[in-house]
Amino acid sequence: MQQIIKLDTTKKDKGNKTGKNNSSLDQKVEYKAEDSVKMSADKNIVYLYGNARVIYGDFELDAAYIRYDKKQNSIFARGLKDPKTGRYMGRPIFKSGTDGTAIADSIFYNSETTKAKVYGVFSEQEGGFFSGGQSKKQIDDELHIKNVMYSTCNLPHPHFGLMISKGVVTEKQIITGPVYMIIEDIPTFLGLPFAFFPKPNKRTSGVILPTPGEDATRGFFLQNGGYYIGLNDYWDAKLLGSIYTNGSYETSLLSNYTKRYKYNGNINLAYASFKDGLEGTEAFKNPTKNFSINWSHSQNANANPGTTFSASVRLVSTGRKGYYKNTAAGTTYDINTIATNSTSSSISYAKAYSNGMNFSLAASSDQTLSTRAISLRLPEMTFNIPTFNPFSPKNAVGEQKWYQKITVGYSLQGTNRIDTFDSLLFQNDGLKRLRSGFSHSIPVNMSFTALKYLNFSLGGTYNEVWNFQSVSRRYTQFADNTYTFREDTISGFKRAGSYSLSTSMSTKIYGRRDFNPAGKIQALRHVMTPNVSFSYSPDFTKAGAGPFRPAIDQNGNQIYTSGQPLKYSIFDGMAQPGSFGGPNASIGFGLDNTVELKVRNKNDTTGTGSKKIPIIQGLSFSGSYNFLAPAYKLSTIGFSGRSQFTDKLGINYNGTLDPYALKDTTVNGQIMKIREDRLFFQKNKFLPRLTNFGFSFDYSLNPEALKRKNEANDKLGEAANKKGLNDLQSEQLAAISRDPNAFVDFNIPWNFSFSYSFQYANDGNTSTISNTLNFNGDVNLTPKWKVTFNSGYDFKNNGLTPMNLAIYRDLHCWDMSVNWVPFGAYRSYSLTIKVKASILQDLKLSKRQGFYNTYQ
C-alpha cells in the first residue's frame, strides 16, 4: 500500500522558527508498508505495519512500525518484538540529508521543525560509533546527547568506549560534561570532568604522545613524542623527539606534500646526539652526533605527458659507526636497516619526444658507510636518437632493398663526477676532484635472413670520448727494476676514438620425443638456440696512438715489465675512460637450451587434457676465442640456468669452467699452482676445470601464504600511488613497506618458508664454500593468536643469526603485539596494546626495553 500526501505549508505561523527542510513550497510525504496501513477515524493518524517506510524531503525512515500524525506533523517509529524468539526486530533506520545512516530503538521526528528525539541510537561518524542513551536533534542541527557511548568498535554492544554523560554535538565540535572510559562494561577511573573534541573537515594540529621505555646503555626514555602540524590540504609536518636519562636525544622533522594529479612526496630530516659509556669517560663527554636526510618525490604520469621528474635522496652520517648503528635504525631496532652498508640517492628529469628521441638529466650519489667513500654525479646527462633507416624512403612499398635495411643510431652521455671520502668532500680543494667528460656512440647495423632459418646481423660501432681532464705520470725506476710514479691531473680538452666491426648468426633447433599418449609423460621437447659471432677491433693500446703514453723513467728510458713495454692511459680515473683494448679478432659462441615435459593434467576431468612442465629454463653456455691474443686465446666458459622441479620449487644455478691446465711453480719458497697456456685436453683431462659454482632456491610449504602476501604487497603499492593520503596513512604504508611482517593474515593458519644459497670457488690452490640459509614462518595457535618468527643459520660460526619473534592477538577493535629479539647486539622486546582505528591512535599502552650496546 502506498500513498502520497501534499502538506500545505503556506498556513504555518511565519513567526515560528522552521527547520532547513521547510520552505514556502509544498513538501511531499511519501509512505508505504508491506503488511498493512491503517488510519484513525478522522484520518489524521496513519499506522504503518511491516517494513514501513516514510520519506519527507531529505528525511528517510524505515522501521517495523511507524505512526504518522498529519495534524501534529510528527512521526514515531519503533521496532516490534518477535513473538517466537522474543527478539526486538525491525529497529528504525533513518537518514537525514548528507548525514550518515543511523539505527535506533525508537525515534520521534517533527516534520515541521525537523526536531528529532532518538533512543538507543547506533550511528557512525567519521570512523567512530555512537551507541545507546538518548539523542535530541534541535532545530539548528545541534545534537544533544545523554548517556551515549562513543567507540571505534563497530559492534552494537562495543568492547570499550567513552561514556558521555551529557554533551552537545555541532557540525565542527563536540562539547561534553563528565566523560569516563568503559572496558567490557566495567567503568574505569580514566575520565575527565569535561572534554572538547574538534570535528574539522580538514587536517588539524595536535600533540603526539611519546612511548616510554628503557635502554640498557642510555637509560629510561620517552620516544617519538612531539607535535603534528596540519598546514593545509596539501602540506603537513610532524616534529618528533626522543630523550634519554643519560642525556642523549633525537629530533626529526617529517613533512608530506601532495597535489592531486600532479605530484607527491615527503621529506624526513633527523638528528641525534648519543652519549655512550660511563659518565666521565671520553665517549660520554663527546657525544656521537649523527644525521639523516631523506627526500622522496614522484610525479604523476598524467601531469605532463612525456616528461618525468623524480627524486630519491638518502644521505646519512658515517662517523663513529654511522647513523643506523648508533641510533639502532632510528630506534626501530630493524636488523636489516642496522646492517645497511651503502646508500644511494638520485634526482632525475627525463623528456621523451614524439619522434622517439629522449633526453635525461640526473644527479646521484653513492655512499659506502664502512669506508666513508662517496661518489657523486653532478650531473649525468644522456641523449639518444633511436635507430632509423637512412636509405629507406618514408613511403616504401614492397620488399626492402638490402641497403634499405641499414640502421643508424646515436647516443650521447655526459658526466661530472667526484670520487672521494666524505671527510674530504667539503675541503677547499674538494671541487678540484671534479672529472668532466662526454662519450659518443654511433652504431650501424643490418639484419637479414638467409636460407629461411639463419638470422644474420652485420654491423659496427664507432665510439669517441671527450675529457676535460687527463693524467700525466712521471716514473722513477730503481736498480732492482722496481718503479714508482707520480700522477698529476691536467686540465684541458682531450679526445680519442675507437671502433669495432661484428657479425653474428643464430638459429633454432627443435627436438621432440613422443611417448605413450595415455601415459603420465606424453612428450619431451628440447629447443636449442646456438649463436656464433665474429668481432674485430685494432690495437688501440699502442703507445703514442689514442690515449696511451709510454712509461718513461727519470733518464728518459722506456720501462719494461715481463719483457713488454709499459704504457698507461691518460684517461685513467677520468669521467670517460673509454673502451680502448688490445687487438681483437675473436669468435664468440653460445648455446641456449630449454627442455619441457608434456604430462597429463590430473585436474582435467575429461582425461584428455595436458600441461607443460619446464625442466630446464635457459641453460646457456658462452665463451670466445681471440685469434690475436698473445696467450690464453680461449676464454673461460660460463654457464647459467634455472630448473623447475615442481610448481613450487625452482633452482637457479651458475658457474665458470676454465679450459686451461695448471702447473706447479715455487712462490716465496712454497709450491703453488698457476695457469699455463695449455688446454685441458692437452694434458689428457676429460673436462675443463670448474672454478666456481653456485645455486640458490626458495621454497614455501604453504604457497597460499606467499600468494596472499604478494597480493597484499600489490594492494599496498596501489594505495601508495593514490594521491591525497593523510599523514597517518602515509606513515602506516611506509611502516609496512619497511617491515613485511607487519602484514598479519589470520586467514592463513600456518606458513613456513626458507631460502638457501650455496657458492663454491677454487683457484687451484684453495677452495672456499659459503652457505646462506634464511627462514621465516608463522602459525595460528588459535583463530585469534598468531606467532611469527624470522631467523637464519650462520654456517661459518655454526649458530643462528639474530632472530625476531612476534606474537599477535586480534582483539576485534584492539590489537596486541609482542616483538622480541632474544639475542645479539640488538636484543630487545616491546609490548603494544592499541586501538585499531586511526582516530584513536593515541589510545594505547606501550612498553619497550632495548639492550642496544655500542660496544658489541
TrEMBL record:
Coiled-coil residues: none
Database matches in InterPro entries: LptD (IPR050218), LptD_2 (IPR045659)
Domain LPS-assembly protein LptD central: 174-660
Positions of the UniProt region annotated as Disordered: 1-26
Gene Ontology, cellular component aspect: cell outer membrane; transporter complex
Spans through the membrane: none
One Pfam match: LptD_2
PANTHER family linked: LPS-ASSEMBLY PROTEIN, LPS-ASSEMBLY PROTEIN LPTD
Name of the protein this chain belongs to: LPS-assembly protein LptD central domain-containing protein
Organism of provenance: Pedobacter zeae
